[in-house]
Amino acid sequence: MPLVKGGKITGDSFAKLAVDTPLPEGGDILVPAERFLGEADTLLNRSGKVGVIWPNSRDISELVPYLGKVAAVALVFPTFRDGRAYSQARLLRERYDYRGELRATGQVLRDQFVFMLRAGFDAFEVKKQADAEAFMETAKRYSVFYQPTGDGRITALHRRMQLRHSEGVGT
Question: Whole-angstrom Cα distance, residue 59 to residue 38?
Fold first, then answer.
């Protein structure tokens, strides 16, 4: 499954573990929420990065105490019609100031890429190579937005204000 991160198709350093998969000695791992919450101390004290696969049906506040310790949060889109992971992403970025990798997984469709970017996602697991390539082009196409959101980009209004300020400083 291709991973798009930083506008590029890249390899995934995280190994996905099931609830009952034996824990490897080292390396980066991505574990389901129930395993993470049950074994948080053990997982966070091993070598390698730890990420968590968080279902959209679970309250994101359960993860908040660990946000400074997890390298990645993979939010699940079980169907393209279920947008709860958008809300979770915005909460993580805007309310809880999470700065680690925020990954979209599950039904990640190319016509939703821009919305996912705007919600704060910065990594995307897609099913097809063609979708990964389309995402790279889509991410380059849009550089200015009017509405503020969780992706950290300045809005068109703020950009204009910056330009006006910089022009007026020297006069």
Answer: 16
